[in-house]
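Hi all, posting the design record for the shared folder.

TITLE: backbone redesign
STEP: 1 of 1
STRUCTURE INPUT:
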C-alpha cells in the first residue's frame, strides 16, 4: 500500500513532534489524536475519501470548514469543543509549514480559519450547604460508600481536575504533617496542594482498607475499578452523578441544573474566594498559569460583589420625605387637594 504524505506527517506529528519538540502531555496528545480520528471519519463518511487515499492535496480550507460545521450539527458538539478540534488542526498545519514548504499556501489558508466566538456560560457551583449534604450521602457502612466518600471529598477539597484525580497514586499523598497531595496538571506541571486533617483521616482509612499504604502499591492507582485498573473519567462522573441524583431528589433547589465533576472544582474555588483566600493562592491551588484565569471566580461571585459595594458605599443622595400619596389611601381626596 502506498503511504500518503498526510499519513506520514500525521504519524510524525503525533509520535515525535508533540511529545518530543513540544513536550506535550499524554492527555493533550490524546485530545489531538481524537480530533484527527474524527477528521478521518468525516472524510470517509461525508467526503467519501478513505484513509488510504487521503493526501494533503485533498485537504482544503473548504472541507476543514465543513468538518467543523459537521461537528456542531451532526455530532452536536459545543462551540468550545469545535474550537478544541480546530486548535489541533492548526497545530498540525503549523508543523506542516516547516516540514513541507511546498504546502505553505494551503497551510496559511487553513490557519486563517478563526476560532468561533461563543457566549461565556455562568459558572455552575454549589453552596457550602449543598456540598455538605452531598458528602453525607455515601453509605460509609459499605466498602464502596467509603471509597466514594474518599473520592468525592478529595475531588472537592483539592479542587482537582478529574484527570488529575484518576492519575493519583498512593505515593502522591503526604500522610505526615504538613499534609499535602501532589497533583500533575496540564503540561505535566506538578503542584503541591495542602490537605486538612479531616480529609487525611478519610484517606488514611480508605488506604488502609485497600492496603494502599504498603510500599508495593505506591505506584498503583489511588482510585480504581473492580479490576484494579484506574478509574476512567466516565467512571468518576458515574459515581458523582449517582449522588447528585439523590441530592436533587432530596433538595432540588440546592443543586444547579447542570452539575459535573468540574463543578466541584468551581465550588471549592468559590468557597475559598468567599472565605477571603487571596486570588494568588487560589491560582496556585488550581494550577492556573495566570491569575487572570482565576479572576473568573471573582467576577462570578455576586455575593462578594454586593458586600464590596455595600462596604464602599457612601450615601450622597438626599433623603426623600414620604409623599402625601403614601399617607393618604383615598385617591379622590388626594386629587381634590392636590393643588390647594
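Okay, here is what came back for every position:
SEQUENCE:
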Amino acid at each position: 500500500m502506498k503511504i500518503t504524505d498526510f499519513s506520514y506527517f500525521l504519524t510524525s506529528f503525533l509520535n515525535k513532534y508533540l511529545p518530543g519538540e513540544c513536550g506535550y502531555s499524554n492527555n493533550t496528545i490524546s485530545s489531538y489524536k481524537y480530533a484527527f480520528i474524527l477528521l478521518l471519519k468525516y472524510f470517509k463518511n461525508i467526503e467519501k475519501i478513505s484513509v488510504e487515499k487521503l493526501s494533503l492535496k485533498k485537504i482544503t480550507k473548504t472541507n476543514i470548514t465543513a468538518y467543523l460545521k459537521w461537528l456542531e450539527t451532526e455530532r452536536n458538539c459545543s462551540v468550545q469543543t469545535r474550537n478544541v478540534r480546530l486548535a489541533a488542526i492548526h497545530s498540525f498545519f503549523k508543523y506542516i509549514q516547516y516540514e513541507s514548504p511546498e504546502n505553505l499556501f494551503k497551510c496559511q489558508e487553513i490557519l486563517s480559519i478563526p476560532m468561533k466566538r461563543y457566549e461565556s456560560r455562568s459558572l455552575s457551583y454549589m453552596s457550602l450547604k449543598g456540598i455538605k449534604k452531598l458528602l453525607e450521602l455515601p453509605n460509609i457502612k459499605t466498602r464502596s460508600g467509603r471509597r466514594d466518600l474518599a473520592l468525592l471529598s478529595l475531588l472537592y477539597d483539592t479542587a482537582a481536575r478529574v484527570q488529575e484525580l484518576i492519575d493519583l497514586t498512593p505515593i502522591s499523598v503526604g500522610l505526615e504533617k504538613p499534609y499535602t497531595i501532589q497533583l500533575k496538571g496540564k503540561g505535566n506541571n506538578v503542584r503541591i496542594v495542602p490537605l486538612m486533617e479531616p480529609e487525611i483521616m478519610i484517606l488514611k482509612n480508605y488506604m488502609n482498607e485497600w492496603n494502599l499504604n504498603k510500599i508495593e502499591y505506591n505506584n498503583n492507582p489511588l482510585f480504581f475499578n473492580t479490576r484494579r485498573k484506574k478509574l476512567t473519567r466516565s467512571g468518576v462522573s458515574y459515581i458523582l452523578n449517582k449522588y447528585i441524583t439523590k441530592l436533587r431528589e432530596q433538595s432540588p433547589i440546592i443543586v444547579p441544573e447542570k452539575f459535573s465533576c468540574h463543578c466541584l472544582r468551581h465550588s471549592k474555588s468559590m468557597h475559598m474566594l468567599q472565605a477571603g483566600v487571596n486570588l494568588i493562592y487560589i491560582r496556585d491551588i488550581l494550577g492556573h498559569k495566570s491569575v487572570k484565569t482565576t479572576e473568573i471566580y471573582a467576577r462570578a461571585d455576586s455575593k462578594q460583589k454586593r458586600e464590596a459595594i455595600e462596604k464602599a458605599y457612601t450615601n450622597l443622595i438626599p433623603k426623600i420625605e414620604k409623599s402625601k400619596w403614601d399617607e393618604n389611601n383615598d385617591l379622590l381626596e388626594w386629587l381634590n387637594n392636590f393643588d390647594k
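COMMENT: Residues 79-99 form the longest helix (21 residues).
Let me know if anyone wants the other runs.
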